[in-house]
Specification:
mainly beta, 6-stranded parallel beta sheet, two-stranded parallel sheet, 2 helices
Length: 153
């Protein structure tokens, strides 16, 4: 299953948890999750997403999302403001992606964000890491993990 039909979850409006890990998915339709306003946990790990799959439109209606796992994909960069509407997001896992740059993930504060996992990525410069950390507009982040991350200057 490489591309999920955009109407796949349209009738599951009360769904709280969704695990789509290990499905070989390569692309997410922009309206795929629009009916899932009560979703709190989304596991998209171990697929084949690239940064082009991770856009603002994909996550824009997930205002109840607490946990987002995008680990073990093919994400090289994340689109600017792709997390803008995730005001309840507490945990973001980007472990084991070939991420080399991260734009400003959100123009709006992410007030609930507590943990960001970025181990085993390759950033193209220390400035990219500094810019990323500086772009996180949160006051209560308790954990940022960069273990086994390579920074090339």
């Amino acid at each position: 299953m490489e591309i999920l039909p955009k109407e796949l979850f349209s009738r599951l409006t009360s769904l709280k948890r969704l695990d789509l890990s290990k499905n070989n998915v390569t692309f997410l339709e922009s309206s795929l999750f629009h009916s899932l306003g009560f979703l709190t946990h989304l596991n998209l790990s171990s697929n084949r997403f690239t940064g082009k799959s991770v856009t603002f439109e994909v996550f824009s209606q997930l205002k109840s999302l607490i946990d987002l796992d995008l680990s073990s994909n093919l994400i090289e960069s994340l689109g600017e403001n792709c997390l803008d509407n995730l005001v309840k997001l507490e945990s973001l896992n980007l472990d084991k992606n070939p991420i080399f740059s991260i734009e400003k993930l959100s123009a709006k504060p992410l007030p609930a964000l507590k943990s960001i996992y970025l181990p085993r990525n390759i950033f193209n410069s220390s400035k990219a890491v500094t810019d990323f950390v500086g772009s996180i507009k949160v006051r209560f982040v308790k954990s940022v993990s960069f273990s086994k991350t390579v920074v090339r200057d």
